[in-house]
Amino acid sequence: YVPSQADIAVFEAIAAPPPAELFHALRWYNHIKSYEKQKASLPGVKKALSKYGPADVEDTTGAATDSKDDDDIDLFGSDDEEVLVIFWKVKKQRNFLAQYESKKSKKPAVVAKSSLLLDVKPWDDETDMAKLEECVRSIQADGLVWGSSKLVPVGYGIKKLQIQCVVEDDKVGTDMLEERITAFEDYVQSMDVAAFNKI
């Protein structure tokens, strides 16, 4: 998986970059070209080009008049079948991973939501609870939906507002809700989260 002196030998034997229709060869050529400054430090021992192909194949890279078909020469030494098997296994695995990533990216993102039960406490028993609830429900935000509510006795004639809401976790936080609810300071003394459940 690392460029070697064999790659350098083949690279130097090629007079010009391969044409665009041979995109795999062109990609290899550009990849090896990027190692121009480190080519001496790449692993392996540089040999004559003919030593990398099949046995008894003459090195014809210097002879311009030879009309031998390039397809007859295996520059990468196909005699090592184990390397080819590993190469195809890796390629198959990469294709599988690419397909998996593609399918995964097409799935709609799951929106994390939570159900909250809030306790909103008034200042005293003279606080207008209908107005207090109206103020709380007037808070609007993307990812916030108000639910049912009820008044729960606390003691000494005082009742607290218990109200449910559903929030999208990425858009609405409990700190933001507390800040906006307690901003109605004429009616609201404090706010607590009585229950917090992931949906």
UniProtKB/TrEMBL annotation:
One Pfam family name is EF1_GNE
Show the GO MF annotations: guanyl-nucleotide exchange factor activity; translation elongation factor activity
Which residue numbers delimit the Translation elongation factor EF1B beta/delta subunit guanine nucleotide exchange domain?
Answer: 113-199
Q: Which UniProt keywords apply?
A: Elongation factor, Protein biosynthesis
Give the UniProt entry's GO cellular component terms. cytosol; eukaryotic translation elongation factor 1 complex
Question: PROSITE patterns from the entry?
Answer: EF1BD_1, EF1BD_2
- Protein biosynthesis among the record's keywords? yes
> InterPro entries from the xrefs?
eEF-1beta-like_sf, EF1B_bsu/dsu, EF1B_bsu/dsu_GNE, Transl_elong_EF1B/ribsomal_bS6, Transl_elong_EF1B_B/D_CS
Task: Give yes or no: UniProt keyword Protein biosynthesis.
Answer: yes
The entry assigns this protein to a family as follows: Belongs to the EF-1-beta/EF-1-delta family.
What name does this protein carry?
Elongation factor 1-beta
- Organism lineage string: Eukaryota, Metazoa, Chordata, Craniata, Vertebrata
